[in-house]
Design a protein that fits this description.
This protein is an alpha+beta fold and 726 residues long. Helices cover 20% and strands 31% of the residues. The structure holds (2R,3S,4R,5S)-2-(hydroxymethyl)piperidine-3,4,5-triol.
């Protein structure tokens, strides 16, 4: 049993951790523990000490001046009952007041997982785990807040969500509604978060928390390149392999907020969910609002243990569809090879050369549809531009299939250009605030995906394409942020629902198409990794990690992304040198080593590389196929960080049975009269013998003595060492 209620305690237990809440004497739901596993009858509220503190109000019903919600750890913080710290919910009541005072009403422990209508969420039908619902009620306003908890015991994963129900006869306006609150009594945490920009996403940053707030957010309508909805609360001494941390993520792809706060008595709070600045929700009598899922794990074994829990849970209990655990075709994408300048013959030439070197699929990127000759027009006209291609899509697919290659194509379904048939016929499909021109992004505008008729229209165009040619892969792109939003479908008082409803609309279409075409592999993309989040990974087995294909910059992007997201979910390609984004020259083999730190592919015209490099492609493809399963199912170890002073970045994959591993090393800088570089593998069976570069040693010896890196021959050289149990 993973959830137990014992008198007024409710304890959730996973393999190694416990999470506890307590209904106190006033009926408030306090959070009493999240950390090492305890017994379910061990009441951790002994750690709370009440004290009469100035300017910390006391609920009217208590005579105890030392009882204040301003300092008590809570399961779901609210405003108006004396807690001035970050709140999870704000409501405008019918009478204009904004108090929400939630007290415990009831709870229920059930088999299986709760459902979140319209939202992606973790699932574990097979594991049969339990879930918990705790009902909190504000009797005056009639708001019922249902706190939902799920437990994936074996991976130490807990999920949370919230359903808000208006049980009154009044209309209520929800101004802020977050998915989760984690209150930690002892402070001294640092926050690891992942910031970035287009073509440089998820840079690792570790910030001390100070009194006051550190807020991470996206107001862009997407989870964004700039901040990612995944953070780690880490003790100051936590490292990759040592110490305590909590990894926390939202299963959501739109605007979000993660607020962390250290309060006046040094306690730490984290609250997270829908961004309140673009949100308000009208809840009529009987209506309910379902919030995105949050997921977290506690680790006492540093970031590595946290990462392993996330990776296992995401690929086994979040990602769906046949491609998650199946070989995904090695692809060649024509974007950096041709940009918009291609026709069917050129595509076929790229495909034929790729095929001769072992590549399995050609992806025709942006530019095959409408009047799309550059990035100023055409988006929304999802019909094949046969004039430009000089062929129908069906014919092209047949030609490509005839050489035993698969064909994939690019879509950007959420977008519209003004210079399109779609805009001329349906100008109202586009998001534009009346009497305002709005903001362009890459010359394009966003479609009103809150509207079902708009989604259906786009779906019908896509279906026509997909049903008329053998397309086996879709790259689903999204190349701008939302700005001023408006929908003719929403009443003025409901316009604050736009951002949330947009994401629900997107999920609806993605759900429909992925269900209709289970044999098509979907890859997510938003100008590279602008929507790299767990919501998207529910629909897409993989996401194009970044528009930056420079192998050396990718070391950082892949490193940052790996903390939460399985590396097999990262699309990674070998591209041309000098690199198109940085102009950096790197060895061909290094580009492959780095791309094998994700789902491998190519993005250049292989007709234009040397014969030697073509031979190298053949060998790389063979190598990747050998390690394919390892990359997608194995445990990932960050052996060094690309941010450290060390001259190399190294990472390792190890199969679950510890019999096969791949250790990759990329040299970031060279020096004269160099000193030895030691790489220490991890996770090996201590007493088993492993062969690495023809040398056989005991696992323990490799892990403690390390592997001495051969002499470096050139800048940006790389090494791939197989680790094989013998
Ligand atoms: C942005 C993507 O990230 C690129 O890979 C490419 O598909 C372009 N869009 C095409 O417009």
């Amino acid at each position: 049993m993973s959830i137990k209620a014992n008198k007024n305690l409710i304890t959730i237990t996973t393999k190694n951790t416990s999470y506890q809440m307590k209904i106190d004497e006033l009926g408030y739901l306090l959070h009493t523990w999240y950390g090492e596993r305890i017994e379910d009858n061990e009441d951790m509220s002994y750690r709370i000490s009440n004290m009469d503190r100035g300017f910390c109000g006391n609920p009217y019903e208590t005579m105890d001046r030392s009882y204040s919600l301003d300092v008590l750890p809570q399961e779901y913080s609210t405003f108006g009952n004396g807690d001035y710290r970050a709140d999870c919910i704000q409501v405008i009541n019918q009478d204009g007041t904004n108090v929400v005072d939630l007290k415990y009403d009831s709870h229920k422990i059930s088999k299986g997982k709760y459902e979140l209508k319209g939202l992606p969420a973790f699932f574990w039908e097979k594991e049969g785990g339990e879930s918990l619902k705790v009902n909190l009620i504000d009797k005056v306003s009639g708001i019922r807040v249902e706190l939902l908890y799920g437990v994936l015991e074996k991976y130490d994963i807990i999920t949370r969500s919230v359903r808000i129900v208006n049980t009154s006869d009044n209309v209520l306006k929800i101004k802020k509604a977050l998915s989760a609150c984690i209150d930690m009594l002892d402070g001294d945490f640092e926050l690891v978060h992942f910031h970035g920009k287009h073509a440089m996403e998820r840079e690792f940053e570790r910030s001390p928390l100070a009194h006051g707030k550190l807020v991470l957010e996206s107001k862009r309508g997407t989870s964004s390149h700039q901040q990612n909805p995944f953070v780690i609360l880490a003790k100051k001494d936590t490292t990759e392999i040592y110490g305590e941390c909590i990894g926390f993520a939202l299963v959501y792809s739109g605007s979000f907020i993660i607020e962390t706060e250290v309060d006046q008595v040094n306690q730490t709070r984290l609250v997270a969910g829908l961004h309140p600045e673009q949100f308000s929700y009208v809840l009529k009598a009987g209506d309910e609002l379902v919030l995105p899922e949050a997921v977290f794990t506690y680790s006492n074994g540093g970031f590595e243990k946290m990462t392993h829990s996330f990776h296992d849970a995401v690929r086994n209990n979040l990602q769906r569809g046949e491609f998650v655990h199946k070989h995904r075709p090695i692809l060649i994408n024509n974007w950096e090879a041709t940009y918009f300048d291609f026709d069917a013959d050129k595509i076929f030439d790229i495909a034929s050369k790729a095929k001769s070197l072992g590549i399995e699929m050609l992806v025709m990127d942006d530019g095959w549809f409408g009047e799309r000759y550059d990035d100023t027009k055409g988006l929304g006209d999802w019909y094949v531009n046969e004039k430009k291609l000089g062929s129908s899509l069906k014919e092209l697919a047949e030609r490509i299939n005839a050489i035993d290659m698969k064909l994939g194509i690019w879509f950007e379904p959420e977008m519209i250009n003004e210079d399109t048939k779609l805009y001329r016929e349906h100008p109202d499909f586009m998001i534009r605030v009346p009497n305002r021109k709005g903001t362009k992004g890459r010359e394009q505008f966003v479609l009103d995906f809150t509207r079902k008729d708009v989604r259906d229209y786009i779906r019908d165009m896509m279906v026509k394409i997909l049903d008329n040619a053998n397309i086996e892969y879709i790259k689903w792109d999204m190349n701008r942020s939302l700005s001023a939003v408006y929908s003719s479908n929403l009443a003025a008082e409901s316009m604050g629902e736009f951002h949330y409803r947009y994401v629900l609309g997107l999920y609806d279409l993605l759900g429909e198409l992925t269900r209709k075409y289970p044999n098509i592999m979907f890859e997510g993309c938003s100008g590279g990794g602008g929507r790299y989040d767990l919501g998207m990974l529910y629909y897409h087995p993989q996401i194009w990690l970044s528009d930056d294909t420079d192998a050396i910059e990718r070391l950082k992007i892949q490193y940052g992304s790996s903390f939460a997201y399985p590396i097999g979910s990262a699309g990674a390609h070998v591209s041309a040198s000098p690199n198109h984004q940085t102009m950096r020259k790197t060895p061909f083999e290094t580009r492959a080593t780095v791309a094998m730190g994700g789902t491998f592919g190519y993005e250049l015209d292989l007709n234009k590389v040397s014969k030697t490099e073509q031979k190298m492609v053949k060998a790389q493809v063979k190598d990747y196929l050998k390690y394919d399963e390892l990359i997608h199912e194995g445990d990932y170890y960050r052996l060094t960080s690309p941010y450290d002073k060390s001259r190399v970045t190294a990472w390792q994959l190890l199969s679950k049975d510890k019999s096969l591993g791949l250790l990759s090393v990329v040299v970031q800088s060279v020096e004269a009269n160099e000193s030895n570089i030691y790489i220490y593998p991890r996770g090996l069976d201590e007493n088993a013998y492993y062969k690495i570069v023809e040398e056989k040693r005991r696992g323990k010896v490799w892990m403690s003595g390390g592997l001495v890196l051969p002499r470096i021959k050139e800048e940006y050289e790389s090494f791939r060492f197989e680790i094989k149990r013998v």
